[in-house]
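Lecture notes, continued. The same structure-token format from the folding unit now serves as the input rather than the output. Read the line below as a description of shape only.
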């Protein structure tokens, strides 16, 4: 008999196993029913295809199938030809000279820096790339009732809200339905630029306000190209991490996309003993030293690490506070993976990490 393992079964069972080991439920069957019911609910398509990032904690909705329906029988993929139909390939884009700079006062730069600080799209950018974002954005004043973007139009700009109230609506079977209101924070318009799709919602200013806009070419050059470079850089880093050899190419690529950079200076504490575990760190460039606290108040150095190594996994595996201190030796760049992503993406590597963590447990007396 030829048995074929369904796609996704391995990931599903792995994630469930990690949840069981972490939560240690009293009744495994009740826990399984609740877990898989919740997993099924999260997979159901949302009623409204919003394609708008509300804030850094929310994700965009599902694609609207209507956007992909054929416009005629001669070409089932045809739709109105537009600038947004152009394909962007970051691997072929080697031109870094098209940098756009819109002059700003110090007060404007300060306001804009604060406005973009919590935006998910910019989370993986380094300090130089963030300065490019600030430079490329221009101020746009809007009046009450003004339409900022209209559903079905081509994507021209990405918008970050400085102030003002903005209503979001979508046309569903000829009827306008309001689906969200931005209140002095948030961003919108990115997905039409990223995925070559028409605008999937309409945004209208409910009050006078100020927006920061970035044109389509600058958005793609900074955000998409930097994301491509980041993935390639982190894929190379992860290929040299021994414990990740069991990951396949797709798993390693997914892990690379989930990492984001952090930089520490000489002597700066990266993690402190006793703190709650927030994630795992991969040393991208530089050296670190690891210490533990002694009862008399001093610290004892137990190890050093350099490029291509990792730390911080023990507290995640055992679901306990940090058992050691980690300090930067000189300038150190690390790639950080949050706790939730660790449990979801690194399930196959946990057993190897447990074996490698014996150095820590030996020193802390476990």
């Amino acid at each position: 008999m030829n048995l074929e393992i369904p796609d996704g079964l391995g990931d599903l069972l792995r994630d469930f196993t990690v949840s069981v080991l972490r939560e240690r439920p009293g009744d495994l069957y009740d826990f399984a029913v609740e877990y898989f019911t919740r997993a099924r609910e999260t997979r159901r398509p949302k009623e409204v295809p919003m394609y708008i990032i509300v804030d850094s904690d929310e994700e965009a909705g599902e694609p609207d199938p209507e956007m992909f329906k054929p416009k005629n029988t001669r070409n089932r993929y045809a739709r109105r030809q537009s600038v947004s139909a152009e394909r962007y390939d970051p691997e072929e884009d080697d031109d870094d000279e098209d940098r756009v700079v819109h002059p700003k006062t110090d007060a404007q730069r300060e306001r804009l820096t604060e406005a973009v600080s919590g935006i998910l799209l910019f989370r993986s950018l380094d300090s130089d790339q963030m300065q490019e974002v600030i430079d490329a954005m221009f101020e746009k004043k809007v009046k009450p009732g003004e339409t900022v973007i209209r559903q079905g139009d081509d994507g021209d700009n990405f918008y970050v809200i400085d102030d003002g109230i903005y209503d979001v609506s979508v046309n569903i079977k000829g009827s306008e339905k309001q689906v969200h209101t931005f209140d002095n924070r948030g961003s919108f318009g990115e997905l039409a630029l990223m995925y070559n799709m028409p605008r999937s919602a309409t945004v209208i200013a409910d009050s006078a306000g100020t927006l920061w806009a970035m044109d389509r070419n600058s958005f793609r050059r900074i955000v998409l190209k930097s994301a491509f470079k980041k993935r390639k850089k982190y894929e190379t880093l992860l290929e040299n991490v021994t414990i990740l050899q069991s990951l396949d190419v797709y798993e390693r690529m997914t892990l690379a996309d989930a990492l984001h950079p952090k930089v520490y200076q000489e002597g700066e504490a990266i993690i402190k003993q006793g703190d709650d575990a927030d994630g795992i760190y991969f040393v991208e460039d530089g050296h670190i030293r690891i210490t533990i606290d002694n009862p008399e108040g001093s610290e004892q150095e137990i190890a050093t690490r350099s490029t291509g190594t990792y730390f911080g996994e023990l507290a995640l595996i055992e679901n306990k506070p940090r058992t050691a201190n980690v300090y930067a030796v000189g300038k150190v760049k690390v790639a950080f993976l949050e706790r939730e992503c660790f449990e979801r993406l690194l399930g196959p590597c946990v057993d190897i990490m447990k074996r490698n963590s014996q150095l820590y447990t030996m020193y802390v007396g476990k």
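Point for the exam: Residues 101 and 135 are 5 Å apart (CA to CA).
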